[in-house]
Design goal:
Chain B: It is a multi-pass membrane protein. Chain B: This is Carbohydrate ABC transporter membrane protein 2, CUT1 family (TC 3.A.1.1.-). Chain B: Keywords: Cell membrane, Membrane, Transmembrane, Transmembrane helix, Transport. Chain B: Belongs to the binding-protein-dependent transport system permease family. Chain B: InterPro entries: MetI-like, MetI-like_sf. The complex is a heterodimer of chains A (about 300) and B (about 300). Helices cover about 70% and strands about 0% of the residues of chain A. With about 300 residues, chain A is mainly alpha-helical. Chain A has a single domain, classed as MetI-like fold, CATH 1.10.3720. A two-stranded antiparallel ribbon of chain A has the order 1-2. In chain A, helix 4 runs antiparallel to helix 10. The longest helix of chain A has about 35 residues. Chain A is globular, with a radius of gyration of 24 Å. The chains are: A mainly alpha (about 300), B mainly alpha (about 300). At the A-B interface, helix 1, helix 4, helix 5, helix 6 and helix 8 of A face helix 1, helix 2, helix 5, helix 6 and helix 7 of B.
């Protein structure tokens, strides 16, 4: 946002050109985002089902009934909790793996580094549905390579072990796929940051007798912090709206819906069960949760005296 | 190979100071070996799933049900079977239509918008930029219900239009990305062109666009890959009508239909992945540049 600062002068004709250039985007902002947002809140106060949506049946205002129904549903609280926990685990895993690999990449020669990047970017370019399918295949109970290898290593209990049956194991499997396809972003970002640190700074630290670990912690990390902040916020936003992996890998939310996250839950309620009112209420709750998370994070950043971008 | 290395080594001069970790002695040699074997092991680990899919895709259906790794016979016809056993070609066409139209539309709509936010001087510009960032952060699923009802009222559900139209008007992430790029272009060039009597449109077309080519390439690539990989959108809007399915929706249902034919499922997976991976490898230079620009900026 640096460019806007200190540039209070306007230029004649620019406002008109800007209005022309931005008019289509403004249409999206108002028509496909602002107005739907308003409608979302509105619909959440109505009994809105299939008849109302397609047959034009009269609408009944039911106040907070949808919310009451949602909040008194034990499943909702479970889903809310595991959404937060699952997203947090994915974010932490992505940052750890991506960060570690960025450091590793900065320490190896050009050829292994190129190979490492190619492999990582290959995972990244893999469409989420394809990646999910592959992981399901690798972890298949009877045919999967993973169980085969584990049995070969002498762990015979793993023969025919289903990785999607137990709730936590299924979540871990999905988290693995999510981390596999999202760490390259963190890796590339942080690697670029590490390369941008002047060598003299590190040399000075080494001359002062700092160990590699100490130099990393006291010199590299503080310099990378703005980048880490960006990567974190991107990961949070990304992992909170995760849909594909859960939907595909656990078959729409797992055994008896044990692996539902808010996004999939909202989709199931609104579109599978045609309860648009309840679905909208979930959408409102999701917006609030995301808003709270983002604000908390921005405040934490500000307290440390940092800004995004 | 070298193409990949160039963007990642932003400053070539740093190559000279590379062996910072290495010092004399056996300890550093051991360290070197350890670090390099770790890198190699991880590379193999990341590649293994991809190799595994490719090998399974050419197995016989019987062998794909075993856990053997190497195909006994090479059944290249599996790829053809994918097309004969399902309307894969039409799914391909739909995906191409969605991604192609979205990318072209995004460029037409978002380049001028980003330019207005980066280089035109007008009141309310910062506020408009803030709105773009806020819109970018909101997950599309949140407003899925009202949007779906809106498109249903227009009778356009079951087609690809609800997916494409927003891109024709402007995509907020692309606007953000392009703006960051435009800001890096020195304003002197534009000013010189203005002195020479160019109109704003000419400045954008003749001066800014040629200089922002890497940024535009990155934005187009991001947009194409995002839409190519999109699952939620096509599932929501086109899911009810199989003629409008894109590859991602088709692949998810293909696995359900051909559950015991893992070889065909994997062949279909390879076909879905291939365009994305090839495009990615060809364009990784702008891709990496795009990331570092959005991330590092400021």
């Amino acid at each position: 946002m640096s460019a806007g600062d200190g540039m209070t002068t306007t230029r004649r004709g620019d406002a008109l050109a800007a209005a022309r250039y931005l008019a289509p985007a403004a249409l999206v902002l108002v028509g496909l985002l602002g107005y739907p947002m308003y409608q979302l809140v509105l619909i959440s106060f109505y009994d809105y089902g299939q008849e109302q949506a397609s047959a034009g049946a009269p609408l009944t205002f039911i106040g907070f009934d949808n919310y009451q129904r949602l909040f008194s549903e034990p499943q909702f609280w479970g889903v809310l909790g595991q959404t937060v926990a699952f997203a947090a685990a994915c974010v932490a895993g992505t940052l750890l793996v991506g960060g570690a690999l960025a450091v590793l990449a900065s320490r190896v020669r050009a050829v292994p580094r190129t190979l490492l990047f190619l492999a990582a970017l290959g995972a990244w370019a893999t469409p989420a549905v394809a990646g999910s399918t592959v992981w399901l295949f690798l972890f298949d109970a009877d045919l999967g390579l993973v169980n085969e290898v584990l049995v070969g290593l002498g762990i015979h209990d793993m023969a025919g072990y289903s990785w999607t049956y137990d709730k936590l194991v299924a979540f871990a499997l999905v988290a693995g796929e999510v981390i596999w396809c999202s760490f390259p972003f963190v890796m590339v970002t942080l690697y670029a940051g590490i390369r941008a640190i002047p060598a003299e700074v590190l040399e000075a630290a080494t001359l002062d007798g700092a160990s590699t670990w100490r130099a990393t912690r006291s010199v590299v990390l503080p310099l990378l912090r703005p980048l880490i902040a960006v990567a974190t916020i991107q990961s949070i936003i990304w992992d909170f709206k995760l849909f594909t992996q859960i939907y595909v890998m656990t078959g729409g939310g797992g055994v008896a819906g044990q692996n539902l996250v808010l996004n999939v839950y909202a989709y199931q309620q609104a579109f599978a069960a045609s309860d648009y009112g309840l679905g909208s209420a979930i959408g409102v709750v999701m917006t609030v949760v995301l808003l709270v998370v983002t604000l908390f994070y921005l405040r934490a950043l500000r307290r440390r005296g940092e800004e995004l971008a | 190979m070298t193409t990949l290395d160039t963007p990642l080594d932003a400053s070539p001069s740093r190559a000279a100071s590379r062996p910072r970790a290495a010092g004399p002695g056996a300890r550093s040699a051991l360290h070197w070996i350890a670090v390099h074997s770790l890198a190699l092991a991880l590379t193999l680990m990341f590649l293994l799933p991809l190799v595994f899919i490719a090998l399974t895709a050419v197995m016989s259906d019987q062998q794909a049900l075993t856990s053997q790794l190497w195909p006994r016979e090479w059944h290249w016809e599996n790829f053809a079977h994918v097309f004969t056993r399902s309307p894969m070609l039409s799914y391909f066409g739909n995906s191409l239509l969605y991604s192609g139209l979205a990318t072209v539309g995004m460029l037409l709509s978002s380049v001028p918008a980003a330019y207005a936010l980066a280089r035109l001087r007008w009141r309310g510009r910062n506020l408009a930029f803030f709105a773009v960032v806020a819109a970018m952060l909101l997950p599309p699923q949140v407003v899925a219900v009202p949007l779906y009802l809106l498109w249903a009222q227009l009778g356009l559900t079951g087609t690809l239009w609800p997916l494409v139209v927003p891109y024709l008007l402007g995509d907020f992430f692309s606007i953000f990305l392009l703006r960051q790029f435009f800001l890096t272009i020195p304003e002197d060039y534009a000013d010189a062109a203005r002195v020479d009597g160019c109109s704003e449109l000419q400045v954008l077309w003749r001066v800014i666009l040629p200089m922002a080519r890497p940024g535009i390439a990155a934005a187009a690539l991001f947009c194409f890959l995002y839409t190519w990989n999109d699952y939620f959108g096509p599932l929501l809007y086109a899911g009810e009508r199989p003629e409008s399915w894109t590859l991602s929706v088709a692949l998810a249902s293909f696995r359900g239909l051909h559950h015991v034919e893992w070889n065909l499922t994997m062949a279909a997976t390879v076909l879905v992945m291939l365009p994305a991976v090839v495009l990615f490898l060809f364009a990784q230079k702008s891709f990496v540049k795009g990331i570092t620009f959005t991330g590092v900026k400021g």
